[in-house]
Amino acid sequence: MSNTALLVIDAQVGIIDGPSIGPVYKKEQVLGVMKSVIEKARELKVPVIYIQDLDVGSENLEDHHIHPDIFPLPDDLIVKKTATNAFYQTELQDRLQVLEVEHLVVIGVKTEYCVDTTSRGATVLGYDVTLIADGHSTTDNKVLTAEQIIAHHNRNLHGLDNVSHFILVRESSENIFEHKHLEYK
Predict the structure, then answer these.
(1) Most buried of 69, 118, 163, 172 (most Cβ within 10 A)?
(2) Number of other CB atoms surrounding residue 154 within 10 Å
(3) Which tens digit of pLDDT belongs to each residue from 144-180?
(4) How far apart are CA 19 and CA 130, in angstroms?
(5) Confidence of residue 60 (pLDDT cuts 50, 70, 90)
């Protein structure tokens, strides 16, 4: 597990609970999955890295804070970002290299924005990605329901590869911290 890290993307009160952006689809269920994945990572000594979007509320408002149900511990890393890709103009890549990470497990919100963009971006930077099928969520848009967006991304991202790194979409009940990608290389 030493080459694996957990990314918790934009799990902030304003996105998960709303009111201006959320609540996300199946809020309580996805929070429960995120909490259990985070607890499992800590149990396995997998680094937990929270990605926090600076555009979600101001730093002094509750909307900006990471959701209290999955709040970081003092040893967890928090990377602040302004773009949809958590690697863009942040310290994330440097931190992962210091930790010698090769495999990222991804949970968070919103599916079609930061979860998708960061997962895809990670593959071109040399990381294998495990996206947790039941560990990300979003809200309806003018064309698709949140349920359709999530299903679409789970289907389209599973097996997406860039050069020699790719994304596997797995359920939280599986052994998600296992670097299963190595079986296919």
Answers:
(1) 118
(2) 18
(3) 999 999 999 999 999 988 778 999 999 999 999 999 9
(4) 30
(5) low
Q: How large is the average pLDDT for residues 53-60?
A: 77
Give the model's pLDDT for residue 141.
94
Domain 4-184 sits in which CATH superfamily?
Answer: Isochorismatase-like (3.40.50.850)
Beta strands in 84-183 (DSSP E): 103-109, 128-137, 161-162, 165-170
Extents of the domains making up the chain: 4-184
- Quick one: the chain helix, strand, coil %, rounded to 5? 35, 25, 40
Closest CA to 122 of 87, 72, 79: 87
User: Which pair of tokens denotes residue 48?
Assistant: 């937990």
Determine which helix (DSSP H) or strand (DSSP E) holds 7, and give its type and residue range: strand 4-9
The pair phi, psi for residue 101, each rounded to 5°, is -80, 140
> Among 39, 169, 28, which residue's Cα sits nearest to residue 111?
169
Residue 120 CA to residue 12 CA, distance in Å, equals 21
Supply the DSSP string of 44-111, one letter for each residue.
TT--EEEEEETTSS-TTSGGGSBPGGGPPPTTSEEEEESSSSTTTTSSHHHHHHHTT--EEEEEEE-I
- 49 pLDDT more than 60: yes
**8 confidence band (pLDDT: 50, 70, 90):** very high
